[in-house]
């Protein structure tokens, strides 16, 4: 959310992140300083999964603070654009004198996201993401479907899953010949790795927040990073398939050569026996 606000608000806005990058807001240990940060704010933007936020706003002395809840995922260019537009409208409402400034910034970010959307979907089509099935962590389902993967099932955060649920996912993964198990970095990656190993697929990890991984300071960079992870995994899979096909071809060729060699050996053996018999008869 901080990234979106900074992109639209520019130097007209001082954006403060209540939760550090890479930390899930649902599992956040609240800092006392949050109250003072809310007290000096004109607008609080949140996602709706912060169980502590309403009580902090109510406990603050800032009765005039406006709230904007932006629910739902943001990990694809179209979803990110929706967040950008909502924030633009909220900033214009509290600061109408800078309307054109916010609109200009929002338009520039939107243009960048549109270009990224076109670029990545083109690459996804060329590499054939739609040929691959995946089981994904629920928070990465929108991105996985947008990039073209066949999502056969999705799972909630690991701590909420029963052993039977995990076993059912593994069984389904084997039956569907799932190629990838996709995890969300911020919700843990151990379970996905274990399922991928049991299924016989590849484990791929996406990030859900900018700045959680070096080089992902913006939403666009985060989306590019996630796309690179699945593109790289597919290319690796395709290369291995080519190597296996080439190996099978070599084995088939060697098998054919062995058959020919065995046939020639049999002929030479027959000839040798015949010559030996003729020599033996002549000598006698």
UniProtKB/TrEMBL annotation:
Keywords, sorted A to Z: Coiled coil, Membrane, Metal-binding, Signal, Transmembrane, Transmembrane helix, Transport
InterPro entries tied to this protein: Bact_metal-bind_prot9, ZnuA-like
GO biological process, one term: metal ion transport
SUPFAM superfamilies xrefs: Helical backbone' metal receptor
Stretches that traverse the bilayer: 258-280
Gene Ontology MF: a single term: metal ion binding
Annotated coiled-coil segments of the chain: 99-126
Subcellular location(s) per record: Cell envelope
Protein name per UniProt: Periplasmic solute binding protein family protein
Organism of origin: Candidatus Methanofastidiosum methylothiophilum
